[in-house]
Amino acid sequence: MTTTMRRLEGDIALVTGGGSGIGAASAIRLAQEGAVIAVVDVNVDNAEATASQIRDSGGTAASFAADVRDDKALDAIVADVVSQLGEISVVFTAAGVSGARLDSHDVTREDWYGVLDINLSGTFFTIRSALPSLLRRGGGSVVTCGSTSSFIATQGGLAPYRASKGGVKMLTQTLAVEYAPQGIRVNSVCPGAIRTNLSANTAAIVPTSGTVKNPSKPLSVPLGRYGEADEIASVVAFLASSDASYITGQAILVDGGVTAE
């Protein structure tokens, strides 16, 4: 996707999970709109691949390796970003895993925390690490990555994943109210069925959680297809920009109509 909009000139954006999927697509879209990008991923090669793509297209980006389960590493990354690029004004917490479709009575402690520690705690600690920089900047925009599972439960299983995404929604609302007086907006983008490699990434990062196999055709999606990562990235860019200046505490569904049924 290309865009002629340059809504984010002068912004420094930190994107976790920026090495693949929605995170990579969003990092690229934010760069196209003028932001300088700090691409953060647990896989440094993937992070650098995204950053290189941005630089090859004329943008400015640097890559950083961090596991969002490690709050001290996140603090160090933010310090490096500020030192190298400047104070952060946009954060997108795209790092996440899916977990296995297990009956809840089969979920182990490792399965539970394997998902919660990344999707929910990782989201919180990423934002916590970035908040001092956002405050020094005088405000900014934080976008979390929720899901249709922040709102509904379809079929069985996935209790850890759905609990984590429900938590992300309430965390988003809590931080939005808390930091609105300081000029920091906090919103969540909530994808439905999106064509990414999330399942494979989950197996690599949280082996005990297994993988989730998506059907070849999303028959329950009213628009009749999977969404693409670029379609989420465009919403992230909107929420990050001044076009969304009066939007905070919201969870924006981008799901092809799934939750309208």
From TrEMBL:
Please indicate which superkingdom the organism of origin belongs to.
Bacteria
A Pfam family matched in the record = adh_short_C2
Q: Which family does it belong to?
A: Belongs to the short-chain dehydrogenases/reductases (SDR) family.
Q: What is this protein called?
A: SDR family NAD(P)-dependent oxidoreductase
Which organism is this entry from?
Rhodococcus artemisiae
Its taxonomic path starts at: Bacteria, Bacillati, Actinomycetota, Actinomycetes, Mycobacteriales
